[in-house]
């Protein structure tokens, strides 16, 4: 093609109309999926579209209808187990509902970054936004979410006047702690997640409240960073303490590191120390011993987030209805009554 030569135009509505023997208005109705076209005519128009290679202008149709069938997704941490599973569930649920996903990761949770993310998503024509950022990251920076787009917040506090969808963190930690106490352990130690994490703080608070409600001693919390490496490093302190007979780890990865530390210290699991994790990642059933843990239903969290946003979009009304997805205790071989 020579420089300056005009590009040949693509097939038009007029081309489809001529081939199908209908008016341009009828082609437009079919292209916009309007109901006032009989089945035979619709099939003829669709066949003509395929034959001439005509594609309806989705952007123009979105402007006319006021809906782009696209969801913006702002996420701070892409690599964590929970976020990865939740992102997958959001994508699956959005696709099933006929929406595309526009993913926008953030490196820093500050007002400028969040405002800029909203602006970029508005420019990219999304109908609404799902935010997957820890509450502490939002709250500590005193971040305000910009107006103008429907928003659902996942894994956060009720600080924001938007629909909130989250795992019932408190219930999961209570189930883990009560399980160990019911087995006969005098108290339960806690290997907690980072203090900046909303989920970790909710689990830690529920663990502490459960011990206090039973009249038990609350041991000092040892903090990791969600990784198996940190679980091992902190776990060496727990493994060296003969008073420790039961540990609730805030996630399965840190529980794995703790198991290694206990093995190296030649403390039997669960004979000497019982261990409970949180998440029920796929490999938890294959730890040695297989890990008792709290199962999170990330698929339900992602699906409910998409459903909450679509309700906002369809009703054109603001709903502030928190959704709490329950957990389940999965008992395996890493917990048992203490030695008498």
CATH class division of the largest domain: Alpha Beta
Mean residue pLDDT: 86
Write the CATH fold name of the largest domain. Rossmann fold
Gross morphology: elongated
Count of distinct strands: 12
> Do you know the CATH architecture of the largest domain?
3-Layer(aba) Sandwich
Which quaternary structure do these chains form? single chain
N- to C-terminal distance: 87 Å
Total individual domains = 3
Question: If you compute it from the alpha carbons, what radius of gyration comes out, rounded to the nearest whole angstrom?
Answer: 27 Å
Task: Bin the helical content.
Answer: 40-55%
CATH superfamily of the largest domain: Response regulator
Which structural class best describes the helix and strand composition? alpha/beta
Number of helices: 12
Main beta sheet: 6 strands, parallel
- In the sheet with the most strands, the strands line up as 2-1-3-4-5-11
Stretches where pLDDT falls below 50 for ≥5 residues? 1-8
Q: Which sequence of SSEs, written as H and E, runs from N to C?
A: HHHHEHEHEHEEHEHEHEHEEHEE
* Fraction in beta strands: 15-25%
Kindly describe this structure.
With 340 residues, the protein is an alpha/beta fold. Helices cover 43% and strands 15% of the residues. It has twelve helices and twelve strands. The protein has helices at 13-20, 24-31, 39-52, 58-65, 81-96, 111-123, 135-140, 169-182, 198-213, 228-239, 252-264, 298-315, and strands at 70-75, 100-105, 128-132, 151-154, 164-167, 189-192, 222-223, 246-249, 274-279, 292-295, 323-325, 328-330. Strand 6, helix 9 (198-213) and strand 7 (222-223) form a beta-alpha-beta unit. The longest helix has 18 residues, at 298-315.
